[in-house]
Amino acid sequence: MASISSLGVGSGLDLSGLLDQLRAAERQKLQPITAQKTQEQGKISAYGRLQSGLSKLQDAVAKLNDGGLYQSLSASVQGEGMTATTTEEASPGRYEVTVTHTARAGSLASTGVADLETTQIAADAIDPKLTVTFGDDTTKDIALTPGATLEEIRDAVNADAEAGVDASIIFDGADHRLVLSSRESGADAGVKDMAFSGLEGGVTLAGDPDTHQPGRDALLDINGIEITSTTNTVEGAIQGVTLTLDPSASGETMSLVVERDRESVKEAVTAFVDAYNEMKSTVGRMTNVTGDAETAGELVGDRTVRNVESQLSRNLVDPVAGGDITMLSQLGISLQANGRLEMDADKLDEALADNPQALVDFFAGDSEEAGMAGRLEGTLGRMLGDDGTIQSAISSSETQVSSLERRYDRTEQSIERTIDRYRKQFSQLDGLIAQMNSVSSYLGQQLTMLNNQFSQN
């Protein structure tokens, strides 16, 4: 208990100040409890950050343990005007693609109209319509409104979701023309003709054949085989591969290579190394020994952290049996003295090019937990599970925090009872000192009177 300043005597005694000092001294009993609670709360926060780092590592390991990663293909194009994507149905191969011309939508303009305000459809027309003929000779009737102008005809076409064409108006410098453009590309979907019924007397609105631009299929050659497509997205010509042609591709010859997607595998391995190193950095900050309790890591000497690091390190260095590659070091990945991983990208590229199957056997193996990634995934699963290592540590600290809170409350109540007892005692003391002062004052008066009597005699 902290020292208490000397008490005064008589009426000079500061009982309130003394009581405050006693309270402050008693409340020092709470400081160790608060310090322990802060320490446990710091541990909970640190365990949460460790959990987050391990979860990120778990995601990276899961990708390496997915056999599909090593079976995926990528497509690369040499030349301008075409892109390619693959699906799981694709197979490795090399192709030469020559594009004669790309697909386009057809269009047709009407004969000219001098004044947009002029009525084109008779006001008394019965069921007037615009009939559009397409490249495959199918037709589509679009209902028009009696008394409609060219602009209202345009609006009626665009309002019809099933029209198969979009309408616009172009001014050629002398007249206004209604232009119909196919909503889809290809020869069959292209606009071929337009015809109106219910026209106003004297109106000769019709399709102008001189403006006709027929729809066109894309025409290309793949390794000597002629291919047509109604759109510039060519699907099915090469199984599992989709080609997308740009209008600039017409007349171009390009090379297409479909091969194992080494880059995705390399990215997955790099992500694993980065996630592991990030987790190690997190652990390093949590276990940093500075000699100062205020700046040291929250988990210095923590058994849970030691177990986590030990298990992960063992998973990384233990050989994987059954394949040409048995150690991470054969892939250019080495475990450094500080516990971090270092990757030689050139050596990894060499392994990917020379023996990709060995990479599959090492990381994914022939079963879910056979390869190194599977082994790590199992370990991380046990650490991060609902009853795993990390959650158990968090629960233990949370239990400790609850216990400390109850202990704090009990101690605080005990302190208040002690202060109440002091207050009562001081009150009694105050009364006793007051009484003694009164007696002292009376005796002083009596002595003074006696002294005066003796002096008079």
Number of strands: 16
**Are there runs of 5+ residues with pLDDT below 50, and where?**
1-11
The portion of residues forming beta strands comes to 15-25%
Number of helices: 10
Structural class: alpha+beta
Instruction: Summarize the main sheet.
Output: 5 strands, antiparallel
What does this entry look like structurally?
The chain has helices at 15-27, 31-64, 67-71, 150-159, 262-286, 303-317, 345-354, 356-363, 372-384, 389-456, and strands spanning 73-78, 82-86, 93-101, 107-109, 129-134, 139-143, 165-171, 176-182, 191-197, 218-222, 225-229, 233-238, 241-245, 253-260, 333-335, 341-343. The protein is an alpha+beta fold. It folds into three domains: 30-69 and 263-393, no CATH class; 73-103 and 217-260, no CATH class; 107-211, Immunoglobulin-like (Sandwich). Helix 2 packs antiparallel against helix 10, helix 6 runs antiparallel to helix 9 (372-384) and helix 7 (345-354) packs across helix 8. The chain is elongated and about 155 Å long.
